[in-house]
């Protein structure tokens, strides 16, 4: 189907007047044609970037509210947290339960000598949704009093 489409574009490119919007669209498509087919090589990829756009939408919507992070370090921290939580969502995890779990583990790891393997075990793709469950609310609130 893509081969037929490309052949059609190649034929149209020869007949369309070069300074028209249609010619521009044909040239644009032909210039990107190899990249347009990339998703056919991998089942994980889709023909569009909708998933990526949905992942960054909360950040884009909140940008005016969080206009300044206070410092470059604050901006780096915000970026890391957004990335971590969006990756958790993409891995079908409850972001709150995931964050609760990893912060609990991180409080122990931070006091130990650095261990890259231990920290990487906290990355979202290492968990299944059933690995993470919220504590009973009453138990949770009792534990923080």
From TrEMBL:
Q: Which Pfam families match?
A: DDE_Tnp_IS66, DDE_Tnp_IS66_C
For this protein, the record's InterPro entries field holds: IS66_C, Transposase-related, Transposase_IS66_central
Stretches assigned to the Transposase IS66 C-terminal domain: 83-125
Which positions fall inside the Transposase IS66 central domain?
5-76
Name it: Uncharacterized protein
Query: To which species is this protein native?
Result: bioreactor metagenome
């Amino acid at each position: 189907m893509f081969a037929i489409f490309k052949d059609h574009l190649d034929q149209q490119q020869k007949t369309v007047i070069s300074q028209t919007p249609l010619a521009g669209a044909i040239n644009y498509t032909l210039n990107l044609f190899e990249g347009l087919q990339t998703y056919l090589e991998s089942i994980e990829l889709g023909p569009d970037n909708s998933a990526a756009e949905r992942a960054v939408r909360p950040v884009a919507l909140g940008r005016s509210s969080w206009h300044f992070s206070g410092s470059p370090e604050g901006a780096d921290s915000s970026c890391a947290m957004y990335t971590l939580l969006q990756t958790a969502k993409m891995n079908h995890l409850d972001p709150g339960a995931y964050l609760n779990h990893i912060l609990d583990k991180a409080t122990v790891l931070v006091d130990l000598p650095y261990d890259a393997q231990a920290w990487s075990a906290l990355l979202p793709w290492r968990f299944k949704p059933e690995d993470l469950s919220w504590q009973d609310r009453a138990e949770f609130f009792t534990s923080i009093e």
